[in-house]
Amino acid sequence: MLLPPDRWPDSERLFGPCGAHGRWYIWWRFPDTEYNGYTAVKRRDSFRVVVTTAEHSPRVVAYRDGMSVG
């Protein structure tokens, strides 16, 4: 099951505006040389595509009282 696109703001809220210090935890999808050249925005956009469209996407978002917490 994918992260529904309408839940993407929950991921942004969870990881923060820069995606965990600009990483967005997508390094394993790209060769080091390619990933290291990405800006935080490119990493965020790539992460969004993976979690909302990829067949095998990592997507666990925990909620407490309707807010993403982990």
Could you characterize what this model shows?
The structure is a single chain. The model has no long low-confidence stretch (mean pLDDT 76). Strand 1 and strand 2 form a beta hairpin. A two-stranded antiparallel ribbon has the order 1-2. The chain contains 4 helices and 2 strands, in the order H-H-H-H-E-E. The protein has one domain. It has 70 residues and is mainly alpha-helical. The two termini are 18 Å apart. The chain is 44% helix and 6% strand. It is globular, with a radius of gyration of 12 Å.
Summarize the structure.
The protein is mainly alpha-helical.
Oligomer: single chain
Q: N-to-C terminal Cα separation, in Å?
A: 18 Å
User: Considering DSSP H and I runs of 4 or more, what fraction of the residues is helical?
Assistant: 40-55%
Structural class: mainly alpha
What is the number of domains?
Answer: 1
Number of strands: 2
Read across the widest sheet, the strand sequence of neighbours is 1-2
- Largest β sheet strand count, sense and barrel closure: 2 strands, antiparallel
Q: How many helical elements?
A: 4
